[in-house]
Task: inverse folding
């Protein structure tokens, strides 16, 4: 038995693969295009694991994806592959349309053709799990109830619109073709190995470097924060127990304003890694102009996955944030590699002639 993980060199995908191999041992084929945020150094601890195989390709490359499906015969596909940064989508939406919409369509078509070659229990038990975001639901007012799986889609950024489109494609391929799909919509993830364009790693790295800690607008935008390890456990649960065609919202139950998050990071750093000057990291907080179309609040009602599948988050925001900050403090080589781009040089050197040719098996 084998599973495919697309986008497995990214933040959530790499954490999922590490957790998966650590707990189940079932072989994983990691398919990743290795755009700017794909970092194989995050998976260096398992690069020689007999159950781990890496293939560099685009999910829109139907010839390669079809060949891989025929070669490895996976029982499930978990689709993390996506462009995911709102700011980048505002400045350059084309790549979001290409990866999140065209790429998902191409992947679905390859998987549909493969699924039809299966028979008996292999066909019945096959799953395509699509990992999405709560941002497809739009923005909430302070008094609004949290998003449920029945909330209307109202995306407000090129990123969330492209993810909404991909969700609709996945749903349509189930209802039209019978493909056994599952969709998850999660809150804001944080934890180890996150690319430093996102708020929490950006603030940690800027704080340690003595740079300003930027906060958009008034900093009162609210997000539901989910520790990446809890998210990975939830995905495994949905894969094992989810009903084909269903959607499951995954939330951490941790609504926090961006200002609260930045201040909490400062508090943790003040405690475990004080400034040499003796001053608090809070002094580095700086408010900057808000970004266009900035959603005010996200919140997730995670009752369905808790009651129907028995998943519960294990980390509070306090414990998850402490683990996250400590990881970045303990992994300065990873941080430096991401900041100066040397992880790409490491990849080229480490894989030699294999780099860019589609496989490390």
Result:
């Amino acid at each position: 038995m084998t599973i495919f993980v697309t986008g497995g060199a990214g933040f959530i995908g790499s954490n999922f693969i590490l957790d998966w191999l650590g707990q189940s041992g079932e072989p994983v084929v990691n398919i990743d295009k290795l755009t700017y945020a794909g970092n194989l150094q995050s998976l260096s601890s398992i690069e020689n694991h007999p159950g781990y195989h890496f293939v560099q390709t685009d999910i829109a490359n139907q010839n390669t994806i079809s060949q891989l499906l025929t070669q490895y015969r996976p029982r499930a596909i978990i689709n993390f592959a996506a462009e995911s940064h709102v700011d980048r989508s505002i400045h350059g939406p084309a790549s979001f349309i290409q990866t999140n919409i065209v790429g998902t369509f191409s992947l679905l078509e390859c998987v549909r053709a493969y699924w039809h070659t299966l028979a008996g229990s292999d066909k019945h038990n096959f799953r395509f799990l699509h990992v999405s975001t709560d941002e497809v639901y739009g923005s909430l007012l302070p008094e609004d109830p949290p998003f449920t799986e029945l909330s209307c889609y109202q995306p407000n950024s090129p990123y969330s619109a492209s993810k909404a489109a991909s969700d609709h494609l996945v749903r349509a391929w189930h209802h039209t073709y019978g493909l056994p799909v599952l969709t998850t919509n999660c809150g804001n993830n944080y934890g180890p190995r996150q690319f430093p364009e996102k708020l929490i790693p950006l603030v940690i790295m800027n704080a340690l470097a003595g740079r300003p800690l930027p906060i958009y607008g008034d900093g009162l935008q609210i997000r539901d924060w989910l520790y990446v390890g809890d998210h990975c456990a939830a995905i495994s649960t949905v894969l094992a127990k989810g009903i084909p065609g269903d959607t499951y919202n995954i939330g951490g139950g941790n609504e926090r304003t961006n200002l609260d998050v930045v201040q909490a990071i400062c508090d943790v750093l003040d405690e475990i890694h004080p400034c040499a000057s003796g001053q608090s990291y809070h002094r580095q907080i700086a408010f900057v102009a808000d970004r266009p179309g900035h959603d005010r609040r996200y919140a997730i009602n995670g009752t369905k996955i808790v009651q129907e599948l028995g998943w519960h988050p294990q980390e509070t925001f306090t414990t998850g944030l402490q683990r996250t900050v400590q990881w970045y403090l303990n992994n300065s080589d990873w941080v430096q590699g991401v900041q100066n781009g040397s992880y790409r040089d490491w990849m080229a050197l480490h894989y030699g002639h294999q780099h860019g040719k589609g496989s490390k098996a």
User: Anything to note?
Assistant: The chain is about 45% helix and 15% strand. The radius of gyration is 20 Å. The first helix runs from residue 11 to 23.
